[in-house]
Amino acid sequence: MRLSLNDQARSLAHRLTDDAAALRVAPSSLPCGAAVIDCGSSVPGGLEAGRRFAEICMGGLATLSFTPLVLGGRWMPGIVVTTDMPALACLGSQYAGWKLDREGYFAMASGPGRALVRAEDLYEDLEVDESSSSAVLCLEARDPPPDELAVYVAERAGVAPGDLTLLFAPTASLAGGVQIAARVVETALHKLHELGFDVQRVISAFGSCPLPPVARKDPEAIGRTNDAVLYGGQVELTVDADDDALAELVPKLPSSASDDYGEPFGKVLEAANWDFYEIDALLFSPAEVRLVNAASGRSFHAGGVDLDVLGRSFGG
Known about the structure:
single chain, Methenyltetrahydromethanopterin Cyclohydrolase, Chain A, domain 2, 6-stranded mixed beta sheet, 12 helices, about 25% strand
């Protein structure tokens, strides 16, 4: 039976629309016919809206649940992400790899619609054979996507505008904070890919991440959401690989392997003149990583949670 990320995501988006009142989200339609779901800009949204946003973003290939985390004796709310198809769910779907910049509207697009567009070199290294008559994309943005953008996205995805669904939420929102924390496994997979490891060899993934307190403004929220992953994210990956290779690889995976590690992300970004591309790419990964060899049963661990930086970022 063929698996379609976009078909699964569209079904989940329909359920989100059906529960719009309870979830405090706002579905609407653009003149071109594309469906838009506001998950936290002009509406309150909420934690469950963010969890479903992340589920849609992963093409329905992951289970996400809220959980209390106790890190170094400190309690905080968190999210757990598990998937048995990590490369496809995290990089093939969830990764925010397509930059949309059209007529004054900018957003990084994530979600399964990227697998139809294939605008990123990343897909050359993934076994993704996506086909669907519908497309679903998730945008981290405060402003709703305009009609012209939806028409452009639909054309790139090869679907009719009426078969396009766009979800959006600003960073400084409950839903925005949840969906970014839910990228904790994705950051580990992306780091592996950047280091030249074949991510298809990752068999399953388990990750947890504290939920950052909602911020007043998006720049502050960008700092807090990134810090949640960089200093509080914990990931275990079950891998089919050689013990020696994993032992050599694991010290390079946590965020602490980067020279930019050690200060709240907001300060790092400010020092880089608010240019993400000036920041060491090796910073963007979980705080703590464990690799488990499925063949030998041995585990390889590196990194750890940094409560000091989390406390400074989260405000106490």
